[in-house]
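Sequence, please.
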């Protein structure tokens, strides 16, 4: 493991204030004419939403990508940015899709390089319990109104030496995650331990979850697929980013295949 490379990547976007710069991170997205951006704001918090519409998407499959709800996991934010740029370069990857990406769900934590927000809250334990945290309320509103058919969340785990993921929601979810992890394994190993992060795991997949994590609202119809991808946080950031991008690309391809198969039944 090359910690020097890792250090250098992690400190990228560090402004002179010692805080990580969100505007530097997002700059390439704002420069790209194919990617729309919108600011969601509440209570002094600003969240950026970027959207990309692929070809043949008059009735699009709406997918959401959430990253850096833990501010000290920058690989996910970088991967969301890179993935959007790849879609803009190669739109066919997003054929039939409307992608909404939220690269920095915890802006103050991202700036400070802390898991929690500046208010000291782990935002990823606050969902659907009447939280007063503005980041959570903004994201809950998106989840309530955007009718996503799939959620992909990007995380990193400093106690894991390999990739793994959580599945919930639609029963097909594990059939999306499994090939995604296999493809991503070309970059970083999977974590094949029978227990990960305190949960039982099988083939790097966990079927359980923490209370209060970012998730689709209850009783959605149809039930969306929900995938949480975890990279080994101590691996070089570039490798984590590459693995996440490959995994997301695979999920889109597999889900499109599934949808077209279902439509042809
Ligand atoms: Zn995390």
């Amino acid at each position: 493991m090359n910690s020097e490379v890792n250090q250098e990547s992690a400190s990228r976007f560090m402004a002179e204030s010692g805080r990580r710069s969100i505007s530097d991170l997002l700059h390439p997205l704002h420069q790209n004419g194919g990617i729309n951006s919108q600011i969601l704001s509440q209570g002094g918090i600003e969240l950026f939403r970027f959207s990309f519409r692929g070809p043949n998407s008059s009735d699009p499959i709406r997918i959401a990508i959430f990253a850096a709800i833990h501010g000290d996991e920058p690989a996910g934010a970088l991967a969301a940015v890179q993935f959007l740029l790849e879609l803009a370069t190669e739109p066919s990857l997003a054929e039939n899709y409307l992608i909404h990406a939220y690269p920095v769900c915890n802006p103050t934590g991202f700036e400070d390089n802390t898991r929690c927000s500046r208010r000291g809250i782990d935002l990823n334990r606050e969902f659907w319990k009447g939280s007063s945290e503005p980041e959570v309320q903004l994201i809950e509103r998106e989840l309530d109104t955007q009718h996503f058919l799939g959620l992909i969340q990007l995380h990193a785990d400093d106690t894991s030496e390999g990739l793994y993921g959580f599945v919930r929601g639609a029963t097909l979810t594990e059939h999306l995650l499994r090939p995604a992890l296999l493809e991503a394994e070309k970059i970083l190993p999977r974590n094949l331990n029978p227990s990960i992060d305190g949960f039982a795991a099988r083939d790097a997949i966990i079927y359980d979850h923490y209370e209060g994590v970012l998730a689709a609202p209850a009783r959605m119809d149809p039930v969306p697929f929900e995938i949480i991808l975890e990279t080994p946080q101590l691996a070089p950031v570039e490798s984590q980013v590459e693995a996440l991008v490959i995994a997301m690309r695979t999920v889109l391809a597999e889900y499109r295949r599934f949808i077209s198969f279902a439509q042809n039944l």
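The helical segments are 3-11, 22-30, 74-89, 107-112, 134-145, 173-184, 237-263.
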